[in-house]
Design a protein that fits this description.
Elements: H1 2-9, H2 11-16, E1 17-22, E2 25-32, H3 36-46, E3 53-60, H4 65-84, E4 93-98, E5 101-108, H5 111-122, E6 129-136
Parallel strand pairs: 2-3, 5-6
Antiparallel strand pairs: 1-2, 4-5
Amino acid sequence: VIKSKLYKVSPELYSAASVSVDRGCVLLTGAVQNPEWISSAEKEAWTVDGVVVVDNNIIVGNIPVSQALQDALITSTCRTSLICSKDIKSVNYKLKTVNGIVYVTGISRSQNELNKTLETLQGVRNVKKIISYVNVIK
């Protein structure tokens, strides 16, 4: 729904922005040419029923193809690392990488599992930073 609202603002915004939603928390990422689109994207996200948080990480500028490829490799490597860890239920986590920053959403079965997840992700080559939106189930 949010992506279709972004298209109404601009087809270019629709193409440049990524939207991840997890239990009412919206993560906006990407790079746009028009600085006004950043606030427009956030405004449109807030108009959707059920949205409780919008974290807008859209930047002005370009993400070079080489960086986009590196981000895809980071995400793939992170996903593989989580799958290979017997202490982590990897299906509970969604990953998105932009400019070497890994955004993690989802649910964790315990604080210990979340700590292990974040440690595992930090160990992946070229990860600059990890931003976690993970909730621990009690």
